[in-house]
Each structure stands twice: as C-alpha cells, then as structure tokens.
User: Which sequence fits this backbone?
C-alpha cells in the first residue's frame, strides 16, 4: 500500500508541475497574451545640410561640391530651354539652382539650370515644361524637343517653320513662337501645332 500511495503522490506532483509550467509559458517571439503589440520604430528625421551657392560654377564642379555637402539627388536641365542633354558636365556651367543656397534637407532634389560653357546665361530660368496637370504647357521660346518631351507620347505634333517653310531637323535648334492649343488650355489628347524659327531668329 505504501508503494501505491507513494506512486500516486509522485504522479500528482508531476502533474501539478506540468500544469504550472503551461500557465507560465508565453508564446515565443511575441508579446504576452493581452499585451499591446509593439509599435513600429519611428523613421529617422531627414538630415539637414547647408547647400552652397553653386551658380557660376562648372556643372561638374557644382555637382561635386553639392555631393561633398551631403546632397546626392542632383538633376540638371538646359538653361536656355532648348532641351539639350548635359552629356559632358564639364562643358556646361550653372546659371540657376533650385533650391537656392542655404539650409535644406539632404534628401532634397537639387536642380541645376545650365548652359554650355561658351554661352551666356539668360535673365530667367525657362524651366522644363510639363503637361502633368492635364493642361497644355506654354512652349514659347522653348525648343521643339523640349515641347515634344513634355507632351504625352500619343500626342500628334505638327511643326511648321514660321519664316521660310524649311524642314525642321535638329529639334534642339528650333524655338516655338506660337502654338495651338495655347498654353493653359486643356490638352485632351488632341494634336498640337507648333510654329517655330531657329534660335537666334526673331519670331514673326
């Protein structure tokens, strides 16, 4: 009988220990039942830097200096509105920069308006036309190439020489004098007509 009672007592103790262990166990890799889920870590705030004044510098030197100051999202456009690509940065100089010099987020997009090294900077930055808002951009004094790049690929474009009926070949050498529809009107996917002359010529 003692053996039977001792065995029964041992089994009872074992069962009690097992039950206690189950109650204290928590799901692995997670919070205890009933507790609030852990919140995602907050993203680090954008770092601030000081953007130098880079107007007047060569485009390559301006890019190098901006990167040394912590700015790496750098783009450039033709400061004469001709839509030319800055294939060799050392051959271009900076006429405009946006944003201007001073405090700025190092994640900011830095845009340089540049002309070729032997060209004169214009008084104002013509910028890059965009049809993103669904309205026809104003292409006046922009190149045919800049106009074509700004319009959706499915847009029909007619280009006419406004002076002599010449064939427009190199589109970066021709500027828009007039257009239909006019800038600001709805684009609506319709055809666009451009009346153009060569850069350096006077619009009729």
Assistant:
């Amino acid at each position: 009988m003692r053996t039977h009672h001792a065995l029964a007592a041992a089994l009872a103790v074992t069962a009690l220990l097992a039950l206690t262990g189950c109650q204290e166990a928590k799901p692995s890799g997670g919070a205890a039942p009933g507790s609030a889920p852990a919140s995602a870590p907050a993203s680090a705030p954008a770092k601030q830097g000081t953007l130098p004044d880079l107007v007047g510098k060569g485009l390559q030197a301006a890019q190098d200096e901006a990167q040394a100051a912590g700015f790496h999202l750098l783009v450039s456009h033709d400061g004469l509105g001709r839509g030319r690509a800055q294939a060799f940065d050392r051959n271009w100089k900076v006429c405009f920069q946006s944003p201007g010099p001073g405090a700025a987020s190092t994640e900011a997009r830095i845009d340089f308006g540049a002309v070729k090294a032997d060209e004169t900077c214009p008084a104002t930055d013509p910028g890059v036309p965009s049809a993103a808002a669904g309205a026809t951009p104003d292409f006046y004094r922009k190149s045919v190439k800049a106009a074509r790049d700004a319009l959706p690929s499915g847009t029909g474009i007619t280009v006419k020489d406004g002076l002599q009926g010449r064939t427009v070949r190199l589109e970066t050498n021709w500027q828009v004098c007039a257009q239909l529809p006019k800038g600001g009107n709805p684009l609506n996917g319709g055809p666009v007509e451009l009346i153009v002359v060569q850069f350096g010529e006077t619009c009729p």
